[in-house]
Automatic annotation (TrEMBL):
<dbReference type="GO" id="GO:0000387">
    <property type="term" value="P:spliceosomal snRNP assembly"/>
</dbReference>
<dbReference type="InterPro" id="IPR020472">
    <property type="entry name" value="WD40_PAC1"/>
</dbReference>
<keyword id="KW-0677">Repeat</keyword>
<dbReference type="GO" id="GO:0003723">
    <property type="term" value="F:RNA binding"/>
</dbReference>
<dbReference type="InterPro" id="IPR015943">
    <property type="entry name" value="WD40/YVTN_repeat-like_dom_sf"/>
</dbReference>
<keyword id="KW-0808">Transferase</keyword>
<feature type="repeat" description="WD">
    <location>
        <begin position="96"/>
        <end position="137"/>
    </location>
</feature>
<protein>
    <recommendedName>
        <fullName>Serine-threonine kinase receptor-associated protein</fullName>
    </recommendedName>
</protein>
<feature type="repeat" description="WD">
    <location>
        <begin position="262"/>
        <end position="294"/>
    </location>
</feature>
<dbReference type="GO" id="GO:0016301">
    <property type="term" value="F:kinase activity"/>
</dbReference>
<dbReference type="GO" id="GO:0032797">
    <property type="term" value="C:SMN complex"/>
</dbReference>
<dbReference type="Pfam" id="PF00400">
    <property type="entry name" value="WD40"/>
</dbReference>
<feature type="repeat" description="WD">
    <location>
        <begin position="139"/>
        <end position="180"/>
    </location>
</feature>
<dbReference type="GO" id="GO:0030512">
    <property type="term" value="P:negative regulation of transforming growth factor beta receptor signaling pathway"/>
</dbReference>
<keyword id="KW-0675">Receptor</keyword>
<keyword id="KW-0507">mRNA processing</keyword>
<comment type="similarity">
    <text>Belongs to the WD repeat STRAP family.</text>
</comment>
Amino acid sequence: MAMRQTPLTCSGHTRPVVDLAFSGITPHGYFLISACKDGKPMLRQGDTGDWIGTFLGHKGAVWGATLNTDATKAATAAADFTAKVWDAVSGDEVLTLAHKHIVKTVTFTQDSNCLLTGGNDKLLRIYDLSDPEAAPQEIAGHTSAIKKALWCNNDKQILSAAEDKTIRLWDRSSMEEVKTLTFDTSVSSMEYVPDGEILVITYGKTVAFYNALSLDLIKTVEAPAPINSASLHPEKDFFVAGGEDFKLYKFDYSTKEELESYKGHFGPVHCVRFSPDGELYASGSEDGTLRLWQTAVGKTYGLWKCVLPEDLGAENSEQLYTSPPEIKA
């Protein structure tokens, strides 16, 4: 009997959810942060979606959000021309980093000592968080707004994607451009997988996988609809993607075969990411919600409880879940 995917719905935002990120696995589990146009990024328990707190202080839409590995710090990028660093335990604002235009992306180095930002002023900036008064290092080269910037290769290099239809690889020490990829259309998302140095990007209906160090193409997969975001499972067996048709798709990484598709959102999917343990993936949408989806449907995990048919009365044998279809977290 086929198992039914039952997503957990995380409400609380009042505008479209445009970015999300998981922490690493900590002694307290793992955590999820979401960026929303309502200007109020939220922190949640990663495996259940339970709300922990909201970071208050931005005066415009928040376009990017991230957590450091141990979930002690958060960073956000906003339309109020600032990036902010937060204490993710207390929720307090630690730093406000003024920019000259809308900030779209923020990411920590592995040691949490530096923050990389990018946005509509076309510059990459590296802030030394131990000396916040110091001017940031700046890297110029993109000819239009930067959408995403990520550290790679043990923080020795930087990957950036921009509205100029390019992805560029930069050397951190020399601040020079190493290589550029040019596309026919703007890249909608970019994910870096350190284990194996894989870069996952989306543009149009295409999900493409590149070697992050050489920028050599590994493979491309065509989806049924325009895709805004994709994420590769930690074990690289499959990947998920979401986009304009409100659906989440799951593909076999090796064969490129579409394995499953689910519709749960009531608007385009803007972002999707696997949890660090690979047991679930989270999606954020134009509809203002986050949803958590099980990687292995029917497994007991987090708030999901699998009940075998023989454990139910005959009259309930059709139902495999004790949870209702919509769980508000």
